Amino acid sequence: MKKFGLVGVLALAAFTFNANANVSGYGHVHLSHLEPAQDASVWLRASQVVPMYPRELAQEGIVGCGVFKVVVNENGETDSIDLVRSVPERGIERPVANIIRKWEWQNVSGEANVAEEKLIRLDFCMGRGTPEEVEQSCIAQSQYACTS
């Protein structure tokens, strides 16, 4: 049921936003730490501000989600970024990978630097409500499976 729910929510959001493209709206990105959990991570982003909505996705009116495997090496540099799954299946990988590559990492564990493989999820949402309403909608979207 959750699988269908995300596809339905995304289809409705995309239709509603694109049908009213001349009406201003808001975009929001929600980041979830899947593995390891944020409090168990060795490396976290140095700046915990919400990632910016990729311009390429916003211009196309693309909403959806992506799960990425990110490897941070022992020097705190991003070694690799691989798309695990996404909705829609195409169009999210390149702009999101460009954002992730720019992140600076810091060791928050208090332990020696070691490489870490992370599984993160980014949800991309658009809406015509207030920024707070769009954010809450995006948080709700992040609870659905990121598969089509």
UniProtKB/TrEMBL annotation:
Residues 1-21 form the signal peptide. GO terms for biological process: transmembrane transport. Pfam families: TonB_C. It comes from the Bacteria. Keywords: Signal. Residues 38-133 form the TonB C-terminal domain. PROSITE patterns: TONB_CTD. This is Energy transducer TonB. It comes from Aliidiomarina shirensis.
